[in-house]
Design goal:
Radius of gyration: 16 Å
Low-confidence stretches: none
Distance between the termini: 24 Å
CATH architecture: Up-down Bundle
Strand content: under 5%
Largest sheet: none
Structural class: mainly alpha
Number of domains: 1
Shape: flat
Length: 126
């Protein structure tokens, strides 16, 4: 596993997901602000991950696989945790979450299938 700087940034983004869950378990304004800050740092690190990979020509197969997975993991974590919260305005969060989760999980499955060297008979874009 080549631990290039962009891959380390991606692993950092993956590591923010459990911290985001822990913060969103609390309902106070300080915890909500901290969770928003963690989500913001994760999204900014996605930009720097891509910038580092392209500018220093350190694009790797692992990075091509992990980067979209890390993006989906952070967004799915936030969506799932926000679904169970009783906040206003009340949006049908379960429906919205299931609409966003299904394509994300399917794309991750297709990427795993492709990374394992199996050939797919269908074309997909994720």
């Amino acid at each position: 596993m080549p631990l290039t700087p962009p891959n380390l940034v991606t692993l950092f983004r993956i590591a923010t997901a459990p911290f985001l869950v822990w913060l969103l378990m609390y309902t106070g304004p300080a915890a909500s602000l901290a969770a928003a800050g963690v989500f913001f740092v994760a999204t900014i690190s996605d930009y720097f991950d891509g910038y580092l990979a392209r500018s220093y020509n350190s694009v790797s197969t692992l990075g091509k696989f992990l980067d979209p997975m890390a993006d989906k993991l952070v967004v799915m974590t936030a969506l799932i945790m926000l679904t169970g919260m009783a906040r206003m305005p009340h949006v049908p969060a379960r429906t919205c979450t299931s609409i966003f989760l299904q394509p994300g999980c399917s794309c991750c499955g297709f990427r795993w299938w492709s990374a394992c060297g199996r050939e797919s008979t269908t074309t997909f874009a994720c």
